[in-house]
């Protein structure tokens, strides 16, 4: 089946792309919605403008859609992007990286139903510890580009998801209920390399922005 992936460049959307391809589907395009609202209910925002660099090293067509990021209204922009993907790339379904967010999954499903296409959520209800271990096993190189919950701070930005990370985040889960995979919005990620990439990306420059007492994001320049 020809599919379009809702793509942010974070671990969830990239791994969902990997699984969809592994299951034998054709990835016709990657769809990014770029929100002006950094606190968007629907869309990942840290380093989102660098997602296009990832699509280049994947060799998959890229479709970008801007949105003001206003709650619920931003869904209209998502629908526009999916309609364009149907028209330009003949997609028959959409892939999401949703794991536990009923808010996101239900709204994307509603749009897909309206447009009469399939909606695939290959990570849905996946055990978070097993998921992170799978990422490492499949040689995904991932860094944190945003942290938004106590006790995470700017020292976590740029940290790689590896076995040590899993140990640290599991301790924080037990003590502070930090979701191990960041599904509660506690942290956001950026993929530098994985089996889908023709070559890995390197961080050439970075800018750290403090947005609150426990809110930091990192905008990266990659090549």
What do these coordinates show?
With 223 residues, this protein is an alpha/beta fold. The chain has two domains: 2-120, HUPs (Rossmann fold, 3-Layer(aba) Sandwich), CATH 3.40.50.620; 140-222, Alpha-Beta Complex (putative n-type atp pyrophosphatase, domain 2). The chain has six helices and nine strands, in the order βαβαβαβαβαβαβββ. The protein has a five-stranded parallel sheet with strand order 3-2-1-4-5, with helices on both faces. A hairpin with a 2-residue loop joins β8 (203-212) and β9 (215-222). The longest helix has 16 residues, at 74-89. The model has no long low-confidence stretch (mean pLDDT 95).
Mean pLDDT comes to 95
Tally the helices: what do you get? 6
- Euclidean distance between termini CA atoms: 32 Å
List the helices and strands in order: EHEHEHEHEHEHEEE
């Amino acid at each position: 089946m020809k599919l379009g992936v809702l793509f942010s460049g974070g671990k969830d959307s990239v791994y969902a792309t990997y699984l969809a391809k592994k299951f034998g589907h054709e990835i016709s395009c990657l769809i990014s919605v770029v929100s002006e609202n950094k606190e968007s209910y629907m869309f990942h925002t840290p380093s989102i403008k660098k997602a296009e660099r990832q699509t280049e090293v994947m060799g998959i067509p890229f479709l970008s859609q801007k949105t003001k990021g206003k709650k619920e209204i931003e869904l209209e922009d998502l629908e526009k992007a999916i309609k364009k993907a149907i028209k330009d790339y003949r997609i028959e379904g959409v892939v999401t990286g949703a794991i536990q967010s009923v808010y996101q999954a239900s709204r994307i499903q509603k749009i897909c139903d309206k447009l009469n296409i399939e909606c695939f959520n290959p990570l849905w209800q996946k055990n978070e510890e097993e998921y992170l271990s799978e990422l490492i096993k499949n040689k995904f190189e991932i860094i944190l580009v945003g942290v938004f919950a106590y006790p995470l701070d700017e020292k976590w930005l740029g940290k790689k998801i590896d076995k040590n990370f899993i140990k640290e985040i599991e301790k924080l889960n037990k003590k502070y209920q930090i979701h191990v995979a960041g599904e509660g919005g506690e942290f956001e990620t950026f993929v530098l390399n994985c089996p889908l990439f023709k070559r890995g990306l390197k961080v050439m420059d970075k800018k750290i922005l403090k947005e609150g007492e426990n809110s930091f994001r990192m905008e990266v320049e990659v090549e």
